[in-house]
What we know:
By secondary structure, the chain is of the alpha/beta class. The chain folds into three domains: 41-127 and 146-258 and 493-497, Aldehyde Dehydrogenase, Chain A, domain 1 (3-Layer(aba) Sandwich), CATH 3.40.605; 263-469, Aldehyde Dehydrogenase, Chain A, domain 2 (3-Layer(aba) Sandwich); 524-673, Roll (Thiol Ester Dehydrase, Chain A). The structure holds NADP nicotinamide-adenine-dinucleotide phosphate (NAP). NADP nicotinamide-adenine-dinucleotide phosphate binds next to α7. Residues 155-159, 182-186, 216, 232-234, 237, 241, 257-259, 296, 400, 402, 428 line the site of NADP nicotinamide-adenine-dinucleotide phosphate.
Amino acid sequence: xxxxxxxxxxxxxxxxxxxxxxxxxxxxxxxxxxxxxxxxxxxxxxxxxxxxxxxxxxxxxxxxxxxxxxxxxxxxxxxxxxxxxxxxxxxxxxxxxxxxxxxxxxxxxxxxxxxxxxxxxxxxxxxxxxxxxxxxxxxxxxxxxxxxxxxxxxxxxxxxxxxxxxxxxxxxxxxxxxxxxxxxxxxxxxxxxxxxxxxxxxxxxxxxxxxxxxxxxxxxxxxxxxxxxxxxxxxxxxxxxxxxxxxxxxxxxxxxxxxxxxxxxxxxxxxxxxxxxxxxxxxxxxxxxxxxxxxxxxxxxxxxxxxxxxxxxxxxxxxxxxxxxxxxxxxxxxxxxxxxxxxxxxxxxxxxxxxxxxxxxxxxxxxxxxxxxxxxxxxxxxxxxxxxxxxxxxxxxxxxxxxxxxxxxxxxxxxxxxxxxxxxxxxxxxxxxxxxxxxxxxxxxxxxxxxxxxxxxxxxxxxxxxxxxxxxxxxxxxxxxxxxxxxxxxxxxxxxxxxxxxxxxxxxxxxxxxxxxxxxxxxxxxxxxxxxxxxxxxxxxxxxxxxxxxxxxxxxxxxxxxxxxxxxxxxxxxxxxxxxxxxxxxxxxxxxxxxxxxxxxxxxxxxxxxxxxxxxxxxxxxxxxxxxxxxxxxxxxxxxxxxxxxxxxxxxxxxxxxxxxxxxxxxxxxxxxx
Length: 674
Ligand code: NAP
């Protein structure tokens, strides 16, 4: 039965309509679905997202939304077999599903974790530190980021129907922005199945996610300055969409991830047959065959030392020859089909262009073995080309055959290798197999500006290396120039694409109220009881105690030195200490000050403070000499709920001497019972 890929608009599923396009199975060539032509009111979809989804998402904070992402990840994880099953018809193998479906779910998990660990509760993200404009500190600056009030339109490529959606949704929903998802029509039936699961989970507020199967109609013409378009696809489509006059006129954010002529360099230090050489061959082979090479990050250009050209071609051909191609449902199959017969024609046309400058040294599109009872329609073997003259060639550096097609090219020295890699005119990723720090540094300096990600691998890192072609949610994905000039993922950086960064200036009290983090100079609240006796929920930001003072004697310093073994001359030798430009003579250990500070501010009884978990931003600002005295101000700076039972309290700790000069300052972290 033909699946009808529905859209989900303003709370209703809408069937394909007149002009719907047939979608063919990549394996059998039969029509399995139809999509498009749905009668969609794009104005209503935008209103629905802005009036329902946005406010509901923003009523939650980063932590609530992070928890929601985790629940969603768990929900989808339980149902991933059903998604695998649907996905075989895209030509993908089980290994490919793991990349797409598990990779997408993994991205939700990572964003959930980052949201809880690296973002505050609430909706104001503090970006960077405080800026001071005067001596008194009564007027300060702080960059903050707050969620946009519009809608994100996510347009995705066909190759990752699930990851493509979830890698955009994760940071977007964490930011608090509703999305309209538009997958590529060719694999939209897989995305639709995932969207149905997401909506059926009931975990997202109404209006948080809508879905378009087919054309976006006049949607882009309706977007405004609070909206974002995040596009993944070919450079041709990206260039056309970003030039939409409405997008230009309203300065609508347009994030583009486009195609890319990614390179992999075999380092000049690598000997043939060495473990590093094998790693290179393995990585390149994987990039050519995973998803049948339909990966924006796949290695298109294999850049190797002149002397190793033949060795690389032989080793790679051997491995490519062992790759079992065929019905992706068959266990032994390692490479499935391209997404459609049309895509195969497109790849062959591009391969023919590459063939004008390079000789095919492995693979014959008309003669290759296939496993399983499958139509030849969308299958291709890996095609390896050899371009002997990469300097005079142009097409091999410009033509992306979005399939299992790569070209080996020789280099003379490292500078030449980098020059060739950079001929891609901006790419998503370049990899280098090397054990040389000098090589790696030179590549970063000379190739870094042209590549969104640089991936180095060698025998030390191979066991844990994540793969040339795998964008990790923690690291940015995107690249300059031809790759679209966009950037996605990269942890919290990816969330900020859906937020407005605003420079806020004002008094310490106002900045404390805005950011939910106490700013030095803001009013202190006298603590009603010792704050260590107060539970997480009872503590308020700015709650402060001032301790009594304690004199520091030479005996204290001597005792501490011998007790800990820290007999550094600045604490023990008057003349040597005085010769130091920073000290008047023997001074107290910084760690002694910290220890005495704790002795002054702790309340020792068992209570809500469960553990001291760390200390941030410690600065010793002034030497403390025997005879000085020490007192402490302890202020509740920030509270971050971690679980239902406990939360993290960040305390601002300031150590003063008897002249009220600040001698040290830091932030103390404790875990407190709720
Ligand atoms: P594509 O043809 O450019 O299509 C990309 C998306 O744009 C699809 O959802 C497509 O929808 C949509 N689209 C096309 N015309 C549109 C229009 N006028 N208005 C609104 N949307 C429109 O690319 P593809 O063939 O799906 O994917 C392959 C390409 O994507 C390759 O070049 C690959 O390198 C690139 N890619 C890049 C990345 C990356 O992260 N940088 C990742 C994956 C793929 P329809 O399918 O309905 O036309």
